[in-house]
Write a structure and sequence with these properties.
It is built from four helices and four strands; from the N terminus they run H-H-H-E-E-H-E-E. Strands 1-2-4-3 form a four-stranded antiparallel β-sheet. It has helices spanning 2-61, 65-74, 81-94, 145-157, and strands spanning 98-106, 132-143, 162-170, 178-189. Helix 3 (81-94) crosses helix 4 (145-157). It has 193 residues and is of the alpha+beta class. The protein has two domains: 1-62; 76-110 and 128-189, Ribosomal protein S6/Translation elongation factor EF1B (Alpha-Beta Plaits). Strand 3 (162-170) and strand 4 (178-189) form a beta hairpin.
Length: 193
């Protein structure tokens, strides 16, 4: 009888010990192992990224001066605002459009809407905004829709990196003269501090 009571008490104590201590400890160890695996993966990704960055820097340093000059045309260090306006005016005149109402301002490239997306701790990153600036050029052109299409195609063909940030039009018929109000962003490299 004493053996039966001792055996039953041992089973109850072992079950209680497993439920209250061992099982939660195993779950904590599994969670820690999964977290460590995630960190190891992040470290491996960071090492691959650093290797790729080193490779790209080496490739950039090995580029001939001629190609570096072409790259400087694509993303210059400074925007010549007068030359930009003159280029846009020439493109508009080429398509028989009237170019007017010019406004030039520094563009804000920050987008705070998706800064962290609520996921985990924020990691320090080197964003594009650290290296690239933009100048916003707002203007209006008047002409037919077909002329406007040709004008926009010529803007796309320019060597400078630019985006159409805003476009609105006033007019009712594509055969008649419409007014198109555009804002374009022209990108350039930030000056080194």
């Amino acid at each position: 009888m004493y053996r039966l009571i001792t055996f039953a008490a041992s089973i109850i104590m072992a079950t209680a010990l497993f439920s209250l201590f061992t099982k939660p400890t195993f779950e904590h160890v599994r969670t820690s192992q999964a977290e460590a695996a995630g960190y190891r993966q992040a470290l491996a990704d960071a090492e691959r990224l650093n290797a790729r960055i080193s490779q790209l820097v080496t490739e950039k340093n090995n580029l001939p001066q001629e190609q570096m000059e072409k790259l400087d045309v694509l993303i210059p260090e400074k925007i010549d605002e007068v030359a930009t306006v003159m280029t846009l005016d020439k493109l508009a005149a080429k398509h028989f459009m009237i170019f007017s109402d010019i406004a030039i301002a520094k563009a804000d490239l920050t987008d705070e809407s998706d800064s962290n997306n609520g996921a985990g701790a924020e990691l320090p990153t080197r964003s594009v905004e650290d290296k690239i600036d933009a100048t916003a050029v707002k203007f209006s052109v008047s002409g037919t829709y077909e002329d406007f299409r040709g004008f926009v195609s010529d803007i796309e063909a320019t060597l400078s990196l630019m985006d159409v940030a805003d476009l609105s039009l006033t007019g009712e018929d594509s055969e008649k003269s419409n007014e198109y109000i555009m804002t374009i962003l022209i990108y350039h490299a930030k000056k080194a501090k």
